[in-house]
Amino acid sequence: MKKISALSVSLALLLNAPAFAADAKLPAPIEALEKQGFELKGEFKAPGDLQGYAMQYQGQGTTVYLTPDKQHAIMGNMIDTEGKNLSDAEVEKFVYAPMAKEMWQNLEKHRWIAAGDAKAPRIVYVFADPYCPYCTQFWEQAQPWLKSGKVQLRVLLVGMLRPDSGQKAAAILMSKDPAKTLADYENSKGKLAMQKPEKIDPVIGEALKDNLTLMDDLGGNATPSIYYLNAEGRLQQHQGMPDAETLNTIMGDK
């Protein structure tokens, strides 16, 4: 079982680099880093009259400090006299905060089924396969938060575990009331009899493909893949069935 982690390397593929003035030539060391695959996300003034740059490489943020001669750059964290890391705030501002916002918006745009109060103060997304027993277990353990109105769970169905997973997911999405059908299915521990469609509605089929693509882009490779925002508004990921402590972290107060 994997522990909570910040989003993985693949997130970088979905982010748009900020627009810097085309006529503003960057210092040679920064251009050299860009040629190596680093993305410039922001600039800032650093202590000691240094020019700082927030950069991203394969989904990870870092800071780079330009020397006064503009011919050299130092990559890494800046520490003050108290041992405080001064780079973290810049990386959070220019790399991770925009990343979280972008990914959260992508989740919102995809096709999901809601469970719980629409006005709940906390939203949790989960990618689930109809044949996934751990998804059913997560559904069961999430119920106290859903019933209290503290959390809205948004389920993005995917078809990945069995050849007919997509058909079963489509049957739920194509039903008259997908939210009720999903709840009945999960509450039956996956035993609810459903007639799988002979032909999947093209719109539903495309939505299922898009969900699976998004899951892959977010670094998910197992179900349930769970996504939520922490107290700092940073997108967090957990794969697999969380233990009790992790579940409380994901769902918040009951």
TrEMBL record:
One of its GO terms (cellular component) is periplasmic space. It holds the Pfam family Thioredoxin_2. Keywords: Disulfide bond, Periplasm, Redox-active center, Signal. The keyword Disulfide bond applies. Coiled coil: none annotated. Residues 22-87 form the Disulphide bond isomerase DsbC/G N-terminal domain. It comes from the Bacteria. Residues 1-21 form the signal peptide. Belongs to the thioredoxin family. DsbC subfamily. This is Thiol:disulfide interchange protein. It comes from Cedecea neteri.
